[in-house]
Automatic annotation (TrEMBL):
The keyword Repeat applies. This is Uncharacterized protein. PROSITE patterns: ANK_REP_REGION, ANK_REPEAT. The keyword Repeat applies. Keywords: ANK repeat, Repeat. It comes from the Eukaryota. ANK repeats lie at residues 85-117, 118-150, 151-183, 184-216, 217-249, 250-282, 283-315, 316-348, 350-382, 383-415, 416-448, 449-481, 482-514, 515-547, 548-580.
């Protein structure tokens, strides 16, 4: 589909802008002269007195002065300069249409073809302004009618653009070239057609202008007239025999464009003129395709009547019916079905049918129509999902009901074994789960890996779904292939309510996984003390050991979970039970420095009576350990201004500046665009801290994500749109929902806003957030009339733009206020938050980072105060309030500590107010309990405690208040600790951005077969190359196709390309060629990141800049892939075979490839490089702070320097890397490790 043409950019020319500026100056001069009856005006910048005088004379047509001026021959063509603009008096006279003055200059032999810097002649200027008499005068003086600007415009172009018909006629009569084209190909007729000047078009046609002359992109006058809806012009061009089947470069014909724009009458005219109704553009789309997509049902009817092929498919296989179904154009669907469109014609990419597309996007009328037309309700896509499966996944309850009623197979499984019930259980759609159970869906149908509906619902914490499945006799002990049960995964994720439901349903509390882990072991490992208590109460064996001998107490002691350790000791856990390696719980707690745990274990060993732990003694022991350090810190604490300077400086050195935050945001925008381009879907948004610029890391702002942070991706589900009662202004009387407390009242969805994908050392965790559109934003408190704020006007305006921008749609997510799960959906203001955070100054951003550190690392962290209930969103809200309420003059670096203290006090005040309200009104509804503060943007909404049971809300609030008071009291010491935790950026300011390493969606996607690859397609080409390399096929055809595919990779993936080329040579037996390939680029360096110095400004950090950086350097060399099984590169030597690709973790099929490391491994293995150069690389890896696990392992394997090897092994230990057997053997044989 062609992109809609923007406004045609024939300059009224820079000259026009210059002369208008000059005219404003001279108008002011004239006004002054008239006002003062002849008194001289002030001097204009750049004009001397004589020049100013002659320009005034032109304005007032003072022929006497002009005659006197023209007596001197050098004055005739003299060029004036004003405000760096150059022109002659004749240019100026033509601009303002002074024909008598023009004649005087011509008589004085002025050069009528004198051009201004950009090429504007007097005739061009007069034509531009429609001064017909001046134009005639200049033509009579032999002015060149075809003299062009540097960009190719002639006087006829500009007169045609501006619709000056008399001027056009004069120029035509003077033999102006009718077909002279701009540099970009526009003819005068094209320009006139673009702007809809039908009289000019008629004049040009009458003069025999070429009606089919195309510009460089293939657009003809007819195309552009159609695009812009100039129907009279279209009629004139058709009448003049314009080619109605002429195609632009993208293949769009005039009929395609008219159909796209819904111009029914024009379509009729084109059909009557014999336009080809089936002419396809390069992607295969016909006029019927585009009209069907846009819902132009009258156009569709006309095209069908003209014998358009209703089953013509695009390149990707989509038919008009498929497209209409996908976009919910139910009237068009009915028309196409009536015209015998094939309801089973599938598209090629994933094999979806029209019914699948409509079911996916919640178009109920379309689904009903297709079912009525006998569409196969069980037709599956390539990966096995049926229409019922996708509707169940997306929560489209009415669609599910219709499909069940139409006898859809409720147990039809996709290739991984997932059923509709499984995916509905996973997504928490309990209404759909109920409907499927009622339709006799098999509640114990397992996926290939053994996961059942109950298992996945328990894993996600969907207790309403779990209740329904248990009631339907789901097997509570059905195990996954790794031996885990629903109770295991509920315990793993801390879903205490689900755990209690499963226990009540007689789940086996001592069932062990393959590795021997029991539910209690897993809950103890993760520190979920409430789950631990529930399992102990249910008689779980507290001494049940895993295969390696670890007991629940051992693993809780290792991880420092003090509350869990106490619960296990109270339950008579054996404190001396050792692991297979002989280590005890006390040993491992001491080894990791968990003092409180060690004290509890010692106490339990001493008195043998573990019923009551001496809390006072434990506290005293702990205090004794910490007191000297705290006292020393207190004694040397600097003043607030001094500490502020230190903190500000440390944060700046660690990259926490406005400029680098802008670069982080730009990188996120690029990642979002790559994601959208790969998936061919605009409804994916990178949100959260990675996108907001600040908060992605609390140690340094260099593009890398903290281990306990993640990247959030929001997916707007097509077809799911909600409307607020009292605010909705949408047509068609859609169903409306009440908005209460920032939530729309809508039942059937689980309160689980995100689906988490695990994180690893080489790849951050990812949160997939599924959302539905809300037709408009509710009232935004900050933007209400009469709201007084210290937020700058530009930021407020940017926030207002968010409310109406298509790129920041209002939406709701699967989250509810306390005790309202499954009854409401939360309105998200993530785009307003993103805009606000991206607008923070350096100091404001540093305040946000400081507060986030204090909440996450001091207040909530297990090694801090371990006080739960606060979250990053509370920090964000307090930061916004500080920006809103703090006067601009207080934002000074010497005030940073004071601002931090004020912020903490503000948070404390909010909690105290909430606690007081609960005390005064003990019968407060559950939805109001745990309310900490008002939402910053939504005027009627609250923000709550995180994860507090309603029975323990008061206890949580009291704990938070106490902890906040302590943090405020100890703020100087805590801030000094924060300064010590910061990591300065490198000298070059390297900012790390490897989009294919952190790509949120790793599903393989098809890529274009043409030669040129877009950057986003590199990922799928590299993936496909690895897959083909792992196949056993070594035929000549396989070799040729793989070689051609590798060759398509551009230089920005040079290392990947050459490494793959070398692998292909090894696979097909060309070792010598492989050696030459890896040697050829041995001096080449990859781009490790973006060098971003402190001098860079935030305005330089743009999406375009980041994309240009990626495309101009070898940037695509780090990749993460997801495979069903590890690709086996059997032709590699054993040492490399176990290292490439690198599996990120057991239990997950994520794989990492560092192609730079692979190239060096091949050079070292094939012995193609000089020893010194190879050892230089190994030394570089040992010294670099950013060396990753894969290159460290390669360097360790080939290292010949013991000191370097020790440094490499130290780095691997810090990464908690598991050394492969081959490397262990090598180290043992060579170094006796």
């Amino acid at each position: 589909m062609p992109a809609k043409c923007g406004a045609l950019r024939i300059p009224q020319h820079r000259y026009r802008a210059e002369m208008e500026a000059l005219w404003r100056i001279l108008t002011a001069i004239a006004a002054v002269l008239m006002q003062n009856f002849g008194r001289p005006a002030g001097q204009s910048e750049g004009l001397d007195g004589t020049e100013q005088e002659i320009l005034e004379a032109i304005v007032f047509e003072d022929e006497t002065k002009i005659s006197r001026y023209l007596q001197k021959a050098s004055n005739v063509d003299k060029l004036f300069s004003i405000n760096e603009k150059t022109f002659s008096p004749l240019h100026f006279a033509c601009e303002i249409g002074k024909v008598k003055i023009v004649e005087m200059f011509i008589q004085a032999q002025a050069d009528v073809n004198l051009q201004q810097i950009q090429g504007a002649s007097p005739l061009y200027i007069a034509s531009q302004n429609g001064h017909h008499q001046v134009v005639t005068t200049l033509i009579n003086a032999q002015a060149d009618v075809n003299l062009q600007l540097k960009t190719g415009e002639s006087p006829l172009h500009i007169a045609s653009q501006n619709g000056h018909d008399l001027v056009v006629s004069a120029l035509i009569k003077a033999q102006a070239d009718l077909n002279l084209q701009r540099n970009t190909g526009e003819s005068p007729l094209y320009v006139a057609s673009h702007f809809g000047h039908n009289q000019v078009v008629s004049s040009l046609i009458k003069a025999q202008a070429d009606v089919n002359l195309q510009k460089v992109d293939g657009y003809s006058p007819l195309h552009i007239a159609l695009q812009n809806g100039h129907h009279q012009v279209v009629s004139s061009l058709i009448k003049a025999q314009a080619d109605v089947n002429l195609q632009v470069n993208t293949g769009a014909s005039p009929l395609y464009i008219a159909s796209q724009n819904g111009h029914h009458q024009v379509v009729t005219s084109l059909i009557k003129a014999q336009a080809d109704v089936n002419l396809q553009q390069i992607q295969g789309g016909s006029p019927l395709h585009i009209a069907s997509r846009k819902g132009h049902h009258q156009v569709v009817t006309s095209l069908i009547k003209a014998q358009a092929d209703v089953n013509l498919q695009e390149v990707d296989g989509r038919s008009p019916l498929h497209i209409a179904s996908y976009f919910g154009q139910h009237q068009v669907v009915s028309i196409l079905i009536k015209a015998q469109a094939d309801v089973h014609l599938n598209e090629n990419t994933n094999g979806s049918s029209p019914l699948y597309a409509a079911s996916q996007n919640n178009y109920h009328q379309v689904v009903t129509t297709l079912i009525k037309a006998q569409a196969d309700v069980n037709l599956q896509v390539n990966t096995g999902e049926s229409p019922l499966y996708i509707a169940s996944q997306n929560g489209h309850h009415s669609i599910v009901s219709s499909l069940i009623k139409a006898q859809a197979d409720v147990d039809l499984q996709q290739i991984q074994g997932g059923s509709p019930l499984y995916i509905a259980s996973q997504s928490g759609h309990h209404n759909i789960v109920s409907s499927l159970i009622k339709a006799q869906a098999d509640v114990n149908l397992q996926e290939v890996d053994g996961s059942s509906p109950l298992y996945i619902a328990s894993q996600r914490g969907h207790h309403q779904v779990v209740t329904s499945l248990i009631k339907a006799q789901s097997d509570v002990n059905l195990q996954h292939s790794d031996g885990s049960s629903p109770l295991h995964v509920a315990s793993l994720n801390g879903h205490d309510q689900v755990v209690r439901l499963l226990i009540k349903a007689q789940a086996d509390v001592n069932l062990q996984e393959v590795d021997g882990c029991s539910p209690l072991y897993i809950a103890s490992q993760k520190g979920h003390h409430q789950v631990v208590s529930s399992l102990i109460k249910a008689q779980a064996d507290v001494n049940l050991q895993a295969v390696d001998g670890c007991s629940p107490l051992y693993i809780a002691s290792q991880n420092g979970h003090h509350q869990v350790v106490r619960s296990l000791i109270n339950a008579q856990a054996d404190v001396n039970l050792q692991r297979n390696n002989g280590k005890s719980p006390l040993y491992i707690a001491s080894h990791f420095g968990h003092h409180q745990v060690a004290i509890s274990l010692i106490k339990a060993q001493v008195d043998g009576n573990c019923e009551h732990i001496d809390k006072q003694e434990s506290s005293k022991y702990s205090s004794a350990l910490e007191e000297p350090l705290e006292q020393a810190e207190f004694e040397c604490s600097p003043s607030d201004p001094e500490l502020s300077e230190q903190l500000h400086s440390a944060l700046e050195q660690s990259g926490f500046t406005e400029s680098r935050a802008a670069l982080q945001s730009a990188a996120a925008d690029v990642l979002q665009q790559i994601l959208r381009s790969r998936l061919n879907h605009v409804d994916f948004f990178v949100v959260g801290s990675y996108s907001e610029g600040w908060g992605n890391s609390l140690t340094t702002l260099d593009g890398r994500t903290d281990a306990n942070s993640d990247i959030d991706v929001m997916h707007l589900i097509r077809g799911r749109e909600y409307h607020q009662r009292g605010l909705c202004e949408c047509d068609g009387a859609p169903e409306q929902h009440e908005l209460v407390n920032g939530h729309i009242q809508c039942s059937g969805y689980a309160s689980n806003p995100a689906s988490t994908k695990p994180g690893f050392t080489l790849r951050p965790a990812l949160d997939d957030v599924f959302a539905g559109r809300l037709c408009r934003y509710p009232p935004i408190a900050l933007l209400l009339p009469n709201c007084v704020s210290n937020i700058s006007h530009p930021v407020l305006e940017a926030l207002r733009k968010v409310l109406t921008s298509a790129s920041s749609p209002c939406h709701v997510v699967h989250a509810a206020s306390p005790d309202r799960e499954g009854e409401e959906l939360r309105v998200s203001t993530s785009f307003l938050e993103k805009r606000m955070l991206r607008s923070l100054t350096t100091l404001q951003g540093q305040l946000f980072i400081t507060l986030k550190y204090l909440v996450k690392k001091v207040i909530c962290h297990k090694n801090g105060f371990n006080q739960q209930g606060l979250k990053s969103y509370h920090v964000k809200t307090i930061t916004f309030r500080m920006v809103d309420e703090t006067p601009v003059e207080q934002w000074k670096k010497e005030n940073l500590v004071s601002l931090t203290r004020q912020s903490l006090q503000m948070l404390l005040d909010c909690v105290e107010k909430s606690r007081e309200q609960d005390r005064q009104t003990p019968d407060t509804p559950d939805r109001s309990r745990g309310r900490i503060m008002d939402h910053f943007f939504l005027s009627d909404a609250a923000i709550y405690l995180k994860g507090a049971d309603k029975e323990r809300v008061d206890q949580h609030l009291d704990g938070i208040m106490s902890t906040l008071r302590t943090v405020i009291d100890r703020l100087p010491q805590l801030l000094q600790q924060f300064i010590g935790s910061l990591r300065p950026v490198s000298d070059s300011g390297t900012f790390y951005f490897h989009p294919f390493q952190i790509l949120p969606d790793l599903r393989p996607m098809p890529f274009t077969k043409s030669s040129a690859l877009q950057y986003y397609q590199i990922y799928d080409v590299v993936r496909e190359c690895l897959v083909r390399l792992s196949h056993s096929d070594c035929s000549p055809r396989s070799q040729e196709s793989l070689t051609e595919l590798i060759a398509r990779l551009p230089d920005c993936a040079l290392s990947a390309r050459e490494a793959l080329r070398a692998l292909a040579c090894l696979k097909f037996g060309y070792r010598g060629t492989a050696e030459r390939v890896v040697s050829l680029y041995s001096g080449h360096s990859v781009s490790r990141g973006i060098a971003w110095s402190r001098e860079k400004s935030a305005t330089e950090a743009t999406e375009k800049f980041v994309m240009r950086h990626l495309s101009s350097r070898d940037s695509a060399w780090k990749f993460c892939f997801q495979f069903d099984q590890r690709p086996k590169l059997e032709f590699l030597p054993g040492a490399l075979r176990e290292r490439f690709p690198f599996r990120l973790s057991d239990g997950y099929y994520y794989f990492y490839m560092n192609f730079d490391a692979l190239l060096w491994a091949l050079r070292l293995e094939l012995r193609t490089d000089r020893v010194a150069r190879a050892q230089d690389w190994i030394r570089d890896v040992s010294e670099r702070e950013d060396s990753d696990e894969q290159e460290l392992q390669v360097a360790a394997f080939y290292c010949s320097n013991l000191e370097q090897l020790r440094e490499i092994l130290k780095k691997l230990k810090m990464l908690e890397a598991v050394l492969p057997d081959g490397l262990k053997k090598r180290l043992q044989e060579k170094w006796h490790f």
